[in-house]
Amino acid sequence: MDAVISTTSEFIENRTYDEVAVGDQASLSKTISQQDIDLFAVVSGDVNPAHMDPAYARTDMFHRIIAHGMLSAGLISSVLGTRLPGPGTIYLGQDLRFLRPVDIGDTITASVIVKEKHPEKGDLVLECRCVNQSGEVVVTGTAHVRAPTEKVRRPRIELPSVRLSRHERFHAVIGEATAGSGPPVPTAIAHPCDPESVGAAVEAASAGLIEPILVGPKATILAAANTAKLDISAFRLVDTAPHEAAAAAVGLVRKGEAALLMKGSLHTDELLHAVLEPGSGLSIGRRLSHVYLIDVPGYPRPLLITDAAVNIAPDLDQKRDIVQNAIDLAHVMGIQLPRVALLSAVETVNPKIRSTLDAAALCKMADRGQITGALVDGPLAFDNAISPAAAKEKGIVSEVAGRADILVVPDLEAGNMLAKQLTFLAGADAAGVVLGARIPIILTSRADAERTRLASCAVAVLIARNRAAAAQKAAGV
User: Fold this and answer.
1) 3-class DSSP state for residue 334?
2) How far apart (Å, rounded) are the C-alpha atoms in residues 80 and 62?
3) Cis amide linkage into residue 379, ω under 30° from 0
């Protein structure tokens, strides 16, 4: 007969040894998702490529990703620990046979049936099996447990919310930049004089993204590479005095020997000052601005946040350039009509809050064609910009609200705090690039993860190739 199990979802109730009879049974079902596989790999450390690497999985015997066998076995454990016998059960042993693979999307039903009772110690022997939605047996076996002797009825524990990031968006950006669309891009790296900046150059070169040109004092660069145990013998090295590295790197771009600029261990201001110098050849008459490409777990699309690193308190004219720079990047990233949210503390125009006045003016500038290529709306509070529910609650009717692709912050302080909150508290990935010059400028930090540094380089590479293709098209090549 079926075990008498509480049907009240708020509670878990066991059956003591004396309440269990031979023939009692219980089961539960679960549909296996990619997240289940990822979570099991995180907990168990089992990163067998048959379960984690689609490219490898296509070459093995099943030709596809399959779930870990013990993931199905874990469902049997769940039945034993929560249903029959339930809380207080001690797992003594189990024999299992794995008969069929389990795919993502399969619904697995795990069942146990009491076959034997041993009163000496209160042990039970249960027949176990897992079947898929087609009724095919995928796991079969026998479990040995010690049943509880005391009745337990406890509130069901609410499981914690879990958000996993597979870093798929960043991997996709890197993959697109290295997918055979062109050779590595010559990149002048200004003053790579510490192990981190030399390492970033080597990483990007190894990934096939850039062809580094190391610009700075030769002895210091070689010492940094030696400290990091990195071989840079294949890279071009331009020997300069420390204070001349930024100008020399810009000069390589001006002469056409490099198509990208990358910050080494010098300060950002020093590099950008060299870019902005009269005669640098890099000005296009637009304000320089920084854009973060953010991949936030749980948000359905990539977010571009600007400006969080260059412009401290931009005026209206500068904000126009900041917005346009971000829109141009969104186009390169494949977002054909990005939604731009102009952030403030409120979603209504308030003469006492300058950012709301700027937002209103920027919206009208977009209406008049002074900003192009996007849907622009504001002022919007952060929640209204990224949450459809919040926008609906406030009664905001907008093509942008709740679905923003680009977040334009009022000033650098707000942008810096927002970006760092997302990376340090929400587990987001953040790649950064400076736009508004003839070439993109790569800014990396020593605190960045390798994938972040590579993604920053990949974004810059995509921009450079996009501009080169546009120039060729304009020239009729």
Assistant:
1) coil
2) 30
3) yes
Give the number of other Cβ atoms within 10 Å of residue 35's Cβ.
13
Query: What number of residues does the chain have?
Result: 477
| 11-155 CATH, one of 3.10.129.10, 3.40.190.10, 3.30.565.10, 3.40.50.150 | 3.10.129.10
pTM for the predicted model, two decimal places: 0.76
For CA atoms 204, 206, 209, 212, the dihedral sign is: positive
What is the four-CA torsion angle of 388, 390, 396, 397, rounded to 10 degrees?
10
Cis peptide before 307 (omega within 30 of 0): yes
Which of the four pLDDT bands, split at 50, 70 and 90, describes residue 10? confident
Tokens at 318, concatenated:
């500068």
CATH architecture of the region 168-474: 3-Layer(aba) Sandwich (3.40)
| Ramachandran region, residue 331 (left: φ > 0; alpha: ψ -120 to 50; beta: rest) | alpha
Considering only CA atoms, give the Rg of the chain.
29
Edge-to-edge strand ranges of the sheet holding 429-435: 236-239, 210-216, 185-190, 260-263, 441-442, 429-435, 289-295, 303-306, 406-408, 339-343, 375-380
Q: How many CB atoms lie within 10 A of CB 13?
A: 17
Contact at 8 Å (CB) between 236 and 187? no
Give the torsion sign (CA, 413, 464, 211, 207): positive
Q: Are strands 406-408 and 303-306 parallel, antiparallel or unpaired?
A: parallel
**Structure confidence by residue, pLDDT tens digits, 305-339:** 999 999 999 999 999 999 999 999 999 998 999 99
Strands 123-131 and 107-118 turn out to be antiparallel
Could you give phi then psi for residue 268, rounded to 5 degrees?
-55, -45
Task: Name the residue among 116, 25, 104, 120 with its Cα closest to residue 72.
Answer: 104
Distance, in Å, from the CA atom of 430 to the CA atom of 459, rounded to the nearest integer, reads 11
Give the start-to-end residue ranges of the domains of the chain.
11-155, 168-474
β-bridge partners, 245: none
- How far is residue 4's CA from residue 67's CA, in Å, rounded to a whole number? 32
Residue identified by tokens 């660069």 is 221
Query: What's the distance, CA 241 to chain centroid?
Result: 39
- pLDDT tens-digit map of 340-360: 999 999 999 999 999 999 999
Q: Which residues of 288-322 are buried (b: 16+ CB within 10 A; e: fewer)?
A: bbbbbbbbbeebeebbbbbbbbbbeebeeebbbbb
Residue 326 and residue 406 in contact, taking contact as beta carbons nearer than 8 Å: yes
